[in-house]
Amino acid sequence: MRIPPAVSLVVVIAAGVGAVLVAQRRDAFHESAAHPAIEYATRPVHDPLARLNERLDAGAVRLSYDPATGYLRSLLSALDIPRESQMLVFSKTSAQASLIDMANPRAVYFGDDVAVARVRGSDRLELAAHDPQQGVVFYTLDDKAGDTPRLTRRVSECLMCHLTWDTLAVPGFTIISTFPMSDSPTAYATGVSVDERTPMADRWGGWFVTGRAAPRVHRGNVPVVQTEAELARPAPAPPVLASVEGRVDTAGYLTPYSDVVALMVFEHEAQMTNLLTRLNWEARVAAGAPGVPTRVAEAARDLVDYMLFVDEAPFPSPIEGSSGFAETFVGRGPVDAQGRSLRQLDLATRLMKYPCSYLIYSEAFDALPATAKDAVYRRLWQVLSGSATGKTYAFLTPPLRLAIIEILRDTKKDLPGYFRRAT
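The structure corresponding to this sequence follows.
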């Protein structure tokens, strides 16, 4: 499979995590992951998976092995990841590509700062977690009965796909929608990196999409590899699937779903995670510089725009999942005095009822260097108070801005005092 076009722009001039991107982009980290202020490969990490290792070593938690699902069920419980978050991907965009196809998709589960992937028939689980300082950190877990389970950190091999322009040149998450390709042995696959701004018509190539209601046009639920005759015909509408039962033998999976709402939440979360890492790293590299350096200010502005869902792709029709993920996600709060939450979903015209990212509560947000966090809060206040005007923010009506401010006042502990001003 050919690497997607956006990824192929990466030019490596040194091996391993010391590699840097030759051509510079304004919206990507411009130094090496081995920069003295970062030292991605060597500094200690304190992400959820590193903390789980410490608990395993101390005997504070034990993982139990199940013949059908290995350590998966026990691992998700230890990490507080809901099984309803399950997403199924059948494109061969994994290190375990040889085991993956439409009959045996890779299952991915996620929480706010961690993701776990399992391929049925594999003896290894793949995991990733967002460290508050070091970005996304990658691990594997041997999935064999009788082993003493412990997570092993993977550095250089995972960054071949997880440190690219698509991840903003920091170690991060990437979600690829794979476009149809010929079954010719000389054919190559292409695709696009997906986030909340990607048109629905380009999403989910190589993924199963289940729900009671989904966009009429998308790239999911159909084979990636097709005959020349199939490619020559107009693409049919993807089948609407309430579940994958009848298409996949669901033995070994925790649910029969690949929930459309989970897919969309994870798409938001992946890029938001990368933006947080980029801002953190830019601020650490610029530490000691007077004022707010240009690259830090630009990274803060990009983060705020994304967390407010600026340029979110429009919903052509309402969306409704079928796995129970939406209810589980919303129930995690926190809520304000009126019972409102940044986790409340809209799903009729946009993803969130109150478009401000729930990852403002994350450890990674709280761990931003002071200069960076101050820049984020000041820009966020400019937008929500109405002093930042123009078409870009017109969708944020005054009542919607006020509601977001009020929710933040009640739920975000370190919110600056100027958010308390009457609006």
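DSSP finds eleven helices and ten strands in the chain.
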